[in-house]
Specification:
This protein has 5 helices and 5 strands, in the order E-H-E-H-E-H-E-H-E-H. By secondary structure, the chain is α/β, with parallel strands linked by helices.
Length: about 160
């Protein structure tokens, strides 16, 4: 199963990009053992004036057809790390070929785009900068792989 991180805005060199790359490399190593392909990053440019519909259309053009979409939204379902790992496992076991995690811009995802998502998840009730959400998502993908492999990284 291909995993796509689909996001509004391009990451610039710096600590957030380095953290994302590190966690994604770790996931890619573990993911192969679990039947996942390497993480694919899909980014679109951020416009000065945010337009959710335009951002959604730009993302839709780049996301492979048939991708199961999971939107990251402050009002989405809050999962713990084990539940997130089981979500990945369930998608893989349903033979999904592509799974896309979508991170909106400063104003979030458009209502129309949210309705096209299979699921909306949240990293808590607080609002996070969308670049930091990429780091958090990358870490949670890696953590999920360690949970599924029963490695000691995830401690509760």
């Amino acid at each position: 199963m291909h995993i796509h991180i689909c996001a509004v805005g391009r990451m610039k060199r710096g600590p957030t990009l380095d953290l994302c790359a590190d966690y994604q490399q770790r996931f890619n190593r573990n993911g192969r053992l679990l039947g996942f392909k390497t993480i694919n990053l899909i980014e679109i440019e951020t416009k000065t004036k945010s337009d959710q519909e335009m951002e959604a259309q730009s993302l839709e053009r780049l996301i492979p057809k048939g991708t199961t979409l999971i939107g990251l939204d402050e009002f989405g379902e809050q999962l713990n790390s084990t539940e997130f790992a089981h979500l990945l496992k369930d998608m893989r076991e349903q033979n999904k070929s592509d799974l896309g995690f979508v991170i909106g811009g400063a104003d979030g995802l458009s209502p129309k785009f949210k309705s096209s998502c299979t699921k909306l998840i949240s990293f808590g009730r607080m609002v996070w900068p969308h670049m930091l959400v990429r780091v958090m998502l990358s870490e949670q993908l890696y953590r999920a792989s360690t949970i599924l492999l029963k490695s000691p990284y995830h401690r509760v």
